[in-house]
Write a structure and sequence with these properties.
Its main location: membrane. Belongs to the cation transport ATPase (P-type) (TC 3.A.3) family. Type IB subfamily. The structure is a single chain. With about 290 residues, the chain is of the alpha/beta class. It folds into two domains: about 170 residues, Rossmann fold; about 120 residues, Calcium-transporting ATPase, cytoplasmic domain N (3-Layer(aba) Sandwich). About 40% of the residues lie in helices and about 25% in strands. It is built from 13 helices and 13 strands. It has a seven-stranded mixed sheet with strand order 1-13-12-11-2-9-10, sandwiched between helices. Helix 7 packs parallel to helix 9. The longest helix is centred in the last third of the chain and has 17 residues. The radius of gyration is 21 Å and the shape is elongated. The structure holds adenosine-5'-diphosphate and magnesium ion (MG). Magnesium ion binds next to helix 3.
Length: about 290
């Protein structure tokens, strides 16, 4: 493309709330045939709220919540913030935690008032040899409704399942339909569990889901799609997404996301709406049409 057409395209983008970092990004976006969307904070608002408390052992709901909130108080994960806020809203004060340990993509471990508390995915509990047969049906039911189940073990025994819900951004479904009309395949990529991801994907019309992908493997999934001969755009908001954004042919960061994601991306969508992805592709197509 000529420098002038790039300048015009970049200027139009800026006025539409789309910051394009390089001429190359504007030139490449028109060739994308696949767009990969992170779930939390990208398709959804990324402000999860605590909605369910199920106890399966001898603890009361308040006791369970106090232990979990204490373990989560040290975590920077959005799910942890939802649990801590949910406990506070219910008047439950978290106890003091020691030996806090975060397990990336899986959850947290801590000692709370002398008890070993394990909070996170079914994988986290299974790897610690906690039997989860009693928790799994509760978790599956939550996940089928699009909520993220948080499994809890206390002193090596199953103790309960919390549910956290995130709302879908109101324009996500329309943007995904518009991408399909542009001939682009849409894929969801998330660390969240497969059932939750599938429920959310169904609600917004995404036909293909890659779930339970650990943070360090997100970029591998992008490279695998590229290995199928695809030109891949990746849209994400989190620290977890940065390597995948960098690996994609075009990385698009949600402007309300973390700085690390924005730095790794080629394009920033200021408003955070997925409509910006559609606008970016259209802008690139128009720019490349004008100059060839
Ligand atoms: P995402 O791709 O949705 O941002 P992550 O890779 O950060 O997900 O985490 C994957 C999954 O691990 C979460 O959906 C959740 O089930 C579990 N998890 C991670 N951190 C925590 C935590 N602090 N508390 C509870 N669960 C967690
Ligand atoms: Mg995210």
């Amino acid at each position: 493309a000529t420098p002038l057409s790039i300048m015009v395209g970049t200027g139009k983008g800026a006025r539409a709330g789309i910051l394009i970092r390089s001429a190359q990004a504007l030139e490449t976006a028109h060739r994308l045939d696949t767009v990969v969307l992170d779930k939390t904070g990208t398709v959804t608002a990324g402000r999860p709220a605590l909605t369910d408390i199920n106890t399966t052992g001898s603890l009361s709901e308040e006791e369970l919540l106090a232990l979990v909130a204490a373990a989560e108080a040290n975590s920077e994960h959005p799910l942890a913030a939802a649990v801590v806020a949910g406990a506070r809203a219910r008047g439950v004060a978290p106890a003091a935690a020691a030996d806090f340990e975060s397990v990336t993509g899986k959850g947290v471990r801590a000692t709370v008032t002398g008890r070993r508390v394990l909070v996170g995915t079914s994988r986290l509990l299974t790897e610690a040899a906690v039997p989860i047969d009693g928790l799994s049906p509760i978790a599956a039911d939550l996940a089928n409704r699009g909520r993220t189940p948080i499994l809890v073990a206390v002193d090596g025994r199953p103790a309960g399942v919390l549910g956290v819900a995130d709302t879908i951004k109101e324009d996500s479904a329309a943007a995904i339909a518009a991408l399909h009309r542009l001939g682009i395949q849409v894929v969801m990529l998330t660390g969240d569990n497969a059932r939750t991801a599938a429920a959310v994907a169904t609600q917004v019309g995404i036909p293909r889901v890659l779930a339970e992908v650990l943070p360090e493997h997100k970029a591998d999934e992008i490279r695998r799609l590229q290995g199928e001969g695809r030109r891949v755009g990746m849209v994400g908001d989190g620290i977890n997404d940065a390597p995948a954004l960098a690996a994609a042919d075009v990385g698009l960061a949600i402007g309300t996301g973390t700085d690390i994601a924005i730095e790794a991306a080629d394009i920033t969508l200021i408003s955070g709406s997925l409509a910006g992805v559609v606008t970016a592709v259209r802008l690139s197509r128009a720019t490349m049409r004008n100059i060839r």
